[in-house]
Amino acid sequence: MTTLQDFSKTCVLIGNDVDTSRPEGEASNIQITINGSGFGNGPNVILFDSFSGGNAGSLINLQTPEVGGWAGENALAAGAVSGAEYYEYNGRNWMTGRKLSEIDSNVINLTGLRYDASLEFSEFRFSYRQVLPIGRKFCGCELPNTTNNSGSNWKPHWFGHTAHGNAVGASGGEPDMIIPTNGSAGGVWVSGNNVNPEWYDYDEARWRSAYVGRSGTEEDLFTYYQKPETSHLGTDGVMEFGNSNATAGWERKHSDQATIWQGQQGVVSPKELDMFLFNGWMGNGSAEGYDNIFPLMTDAYLAIGANSRACLVISDAATLATSTKFAIIPPDSWSDTTITATKRPHEAALTFNHLILADGTQMENV
């Protein structure tokens, strides 16, 4: 049987008992088991944080993710400050994207976290959820709950290498990747100061950036997977990405023709990453000021290695096309015939299970 790494030291599995590390009054976690065949090998998830391990208004505990742990707060980006907090919204916990006590100040005051993998990776899946509370703004946007930012004002998550600038200090030719960066057209895409990953769109017969829309009012689930090309200037990489929400529904774009590291700045070295900032940067002199900017983020998920494309998606309908709410959660175990996982109480309504396998096959309502 093929299983994941031993999560016993990083994951809290509680069955029907009350998990005393969860906020007071929160219901128990929910165990799920999926039986079948042909599931293949599961992902090596090295980080997952639903931010369920603390009470709203308290500072983020760096050591309470369900899988892995954070190295510290984001102290690398200009304007970043300490004080990332748990924040309750839509019946669950999120991480604050700006200092809660200074939301109305015209100062960046970004809050976020830093993750150090302590090993290099190039093939990986990253996903997270974000939402903008009603009445709040995205960086660079003129009005609350809109996506009309004037330029590239926000890097929600910035990947890099600890020996090559820690993302924010990467110089020409060093690896950095923003997953995703926001753009002036109201959407987001995967890019960087030194790379510009592209994929071949068979439907439109052209090369494109990994670009998707986003919502100013609904919960977004963004996910990105890459397997780099095998040689310099090669186009045999694999890319998969999408941003799903209640209005847009399930979005999954993928191609087995992609180029990751031969971006607009030429050869990148090394072609590896080993860290990222969860809420990376705000700036470019936001024309609308920084007051009232308040994004929320949660469900930070990182899987690395050969089977990282495989993932478990839970939703509120039997097909992804008819679902309106989605989450990607880590499996507790994964074999060719059985998958187990733990849902948090706020995911109780997401009763349908779907899989993306390591070879890209999508299986619904398993």
3D architecture notes:
The protein is mainly β. The chain has a single domain (30-363), classed as Jelly Rolls (Sandwich). The chain has strands at residues 30-35, 44-49, 72-73, 86-89, 92-96, 113-121, 124-131, 154-160, 177-182, 188-191, 198-201, 206-209, 211-212, 220-227, 237-244, 253-259, 273-282, 296-304, 311-315, 326-329, 331-334, 338-343, 352-356, 362-363. The strands form 4 sheets. Strands 2, 4, 5, 7, 11, 12, 14, 15, 16 and 18 form a 10-stranded antiparallel sheet that branches. The chain is globular, with a radius of gyration of 19 Å. The two termini are 19 Å apart.
How far do the termini sit from each other?
A: 19 Å
User: How does the helix and strand content classify structurally?
Assistant: mainly beta
Give the biggest sheet.
10 strands, antiparallel
**How do the SSEs run, as a string of H and E?**
EEEEEEEEEEEEEEEEEEEEEEEE
Instruction: Say what the CATH topology is.
Output: Jelly Rolls
Mean pLDDT: 89
Number of helices: 0
Number of E-type strands = 24
Radius of gyration in whole Å, from Cα? 19 Å
Report strand %. Answer: 35-45%
Low-pLDDT sequence parts: 1-25
What top-tier CATH class fits best? Mainly Beta
- The rough form would be described as globular
CATH architecture name? Sandwich
Query: Helix fraction?
Result: under 10%
Number of domains: 1
